[in-house]
Write a structure and sequence with these properties.
Keywords: Glycosyltransferase, Nucleotide-binding, Transferase. Homotetramer; a dimer of dimers. The chain is of the alpha/beta class. It has 12 helices and 12 strands. It is globular. The chain starts with a strand and ends with a helix.
């Protein structure tokens, strides 16, 4: 039996969706001996039925009866593409399929609810589903998910090299990976005693604010910079749609902060909030004002206790252990009734 895993290519190099799939596949192929089924992001409607059929035949060319296929979804090529891919896979006898749900498009973007039913149909064609969180699983069940075997992810990994000879320093700064265009709340940052460090460029709205603009950073440089700068990593949104979605999904941004070795700031509805509190990985607050106040009141000793706890936890994230455990558990559960 060979385990195969689909992997997305062809999106922008800054795409978090592609980065997450590539990361999972690298761990799966290099450490668990899975086989990559590479697929590309492209305008599927440009394919004739015969051309799409041939393209999919190439993707699954290494598949044999009795194998396991992990479909990382969404492929971002649409549900028609995913259904046709499943048709091809189901053409082989005794093949088992795992849907690894990274995101649910219907709940990410305005006006996309119409695709939900088709995605539920994709998931229900699989033998096991990896869902981001318990909250996501419950909502999917409410909307028609019937697959009996479901396991929850809870955390992303983030393999990256970090200089662990020193801990992040205690500084009253808040790091935020995001841009003002998408996360409008940063434009209202008014804390004089706590600096906001933002991966954006200043187009004028930052004048007079305690904000440092560092622009886009590649992954390794960003993690290294946050490790050297210290402070906290902020996971936040005040956009109603995105705030609601953040209650359901697993944030890649959260694991980026933890991989850098810095404590995090999250809301109580964040799915990982209980773990963050229990393992002293950061602050759980109800508002940005509360976050700023807690950072202002933080002592070096309190911060040191947190970064020690974060460094302990980060070894799992940097080492890919959440992914290895998740994929191994998924395959195990397929065959262990």
């Amino acid at each position: 039996m060979q385990v195969h895993i689909t992997n997305l290519h062809g999106q922008d190099s800054k795409s978090t969706a592609q980065r997450a799939q590539n990361m999972v596949t690298e761990i799966a192929t290099k450490q668990l001996d899975f086989n990559e089924m590479g697929l590309y992001f492209y305008p599927v409607k440009s394919d004739s039925p015969d051309k799409l059929s041939g393209r999919l035949d190439g993707i699954i060319s290494a598949l044999n009866p009795g194998d396991v296929v992990i479909l990382q979804t969404p492929t971002w090529n649409g549900t028609h593409y995913e259904h046709r891919l499943l048709d091809k896979i189901r053409g082989y006898s005794d093949v088992k399929i795992i849907a690894f749900i990274h995101d649910v498009e219907a709940w990410m973007f305005e006006g996309m609810e119409f695709v939900l039913d088709e995605y539920i149909k994709v998931y229900n064609r699989c033998d096991l589903v990896i869902s981001p969180t318990e909250k996501m699983t419950a909502r999917l069940r409410k909307h028609g998910l019937t697959v009996k075997k479901v396991i929850n992810q809870e955390f992303w990994d983030h393999p990256v090299a970090v200089d662990t000879a020193t801990f992040p320093p205690f500084n009253r700064v808040v790091n935020f990976i995001g841009r003002g265009k998408k996360f409008d709340f940063v434009k209202n940052w008014s804390a004089a005693d706590v600096k906001l460090i933002l991966t954006d460029t200043d187009t004028g709205w930052g004048a007079g604010k305690n904000i440092e603009f560092i622009g886009y950073q590649n992954d390794a440089d960003l993690v290294s910079r946050m490790h050297r700068t210290g402070g906290f990593g902020l996971l936040w949104s005040e956009n109603p749609l995105w705030s609601e979605y953040m209650k359901l999904n697993v944030s890649y941004k959260l694991s980026t902060y933890l991989a850098a070795g810095i404590p995090v700031i999250v809301e109580p509805d964040t799915p990982q909030a209980d773990t963050i509190l229990a393992k002293k990985l950061g602050l759980v607050v109800n508002s940005l004002d509360e976050a700023v106040e807690q950072v202002k009141q933080m002592t070096p000793a309190d911060y040191q206790e947190m970064v020690v706890a974060v460094e302990h936890f980060a070894q799992l994230i940097r080492g890919g252990y959440f992914t290895k455990r998740l994929l191994t558990q998924a395959v195990f559960d397929l065959f262990y009734d």
